[in-house]
Amino acid sequence: MSESDRSRADRLYMVEALRLARQGRFTTDPNPRVGCVLVRDGQVVGRGWHARAGEPHAERHALAEAGEAARGATCYVTLEPCSHTGRTGPCADALVAAGVTRVVAAMADPNPQVAGQGLARLREAGIEVECGLLENEARALNPGFIRRMETGRPYVRIKLAASLDGRTAMASGESQWITGPAAREDVQQLRAASSAIITGSGTVLADAPALTVRPESWVQATYPVLPVRQPLRVVADRQLRTPAQAPVVMGPGGALLLCAPEATRGAQLEALRRAGAEVLGGDWHPEAILLELGRRGCNEVLVESGPTLAGAFLAASCADELIVYLAPVLLGDAARPLLHLPGLEHMADKIALTLVDLRQVGDDVRLTLRLT
Questions:
Q1: How far apart are CA 316 and CA 156, in angstroms?
Q2: 65 flagged as catalytic
Q3: Of 66, 78, 292, 347, which sees the most CB atoms within 10 A?
Q4: pLDDT tens digits, 246-288
Q5: Catalytic one among 3, 16, 55, 59?
Q6: HEC profile for 169-198?
Q7: Closest-CA residue to 157 (of 357, 365, 363)
């Protein structure tokens, strides 16, 4: 096979490995999404993707499918094979034992427990190793895992829904519904891909959101055999005003309420704990919230809140993306604004954003913007 033919084949098989990895978008947390393809003599002999923490990694699924055909094969994997023993054994050792002769990895593992050691283990065993093919695409699969490994903080998306004139609710607080059903269904995918959803007590009291992935949503219907994990619901509630019977507390999955130290006592606290909520007192500014969630293994976090809390995350440089749904309606000057961002008085104070995606979702428009 010529060098150019091998290069084209490598790219083709890595694209397939990336496709496999995407199947774990809603289920692998806190682990990364990883796909693997084994190829021998120009034929795919094994495919695998990581589904859930504690279950076999992508490489082991592919090796199990390939069996003896793995000997002499090339392994295409979207993330460096692990070299440490966690809940499963090292994948680098499994590839060596299976007799794989070449490994092409899209990117090195940012986990300090691996960080090149898996690739080194393969090279020590005489396996040809290459790393970096379609690395940008591989990194885009796991922004939260990478961010948490590198900084201790999850990757943060702020979701906003607004009218065309930039309003999120009427002056009375009425906000259901600005956007249409297609946009609300789209949000279900954002929730399912998130380890945690952060909101404020004002939103809880005004709208009584559940912040769960609905059982009738497209996400749950697409993964009937492998149930989608419900995100942790986090309420920034300094005075502990959240009712114990609030949907955000009572829904499936966990609820974490973050309050001031002086609020961690009394009947309200006990009622919330009896309802199954966890309550933590502390100085919960955005950075502190994210570090706490990073310690809990949260990779990607979605902020679904009112303009004050969303603005606080932006002002504290604690957001990576804005996802804004714009509805073709006008709510007028008296309606509530998209964000509260006090302190921006000069053009030099502006927060710069880069538009990375623009598409129509039903009757609405969705903008994805990254902080620059």
A1: 12
A2: no
A3: 78
A4: 999 998 889 999 999 988 778 888 999 999 999 999 999 999 9
A5: 59
A6: ECCCCCCCCCCCHHHHHHHHHHHHCCCEEE
A7: 357
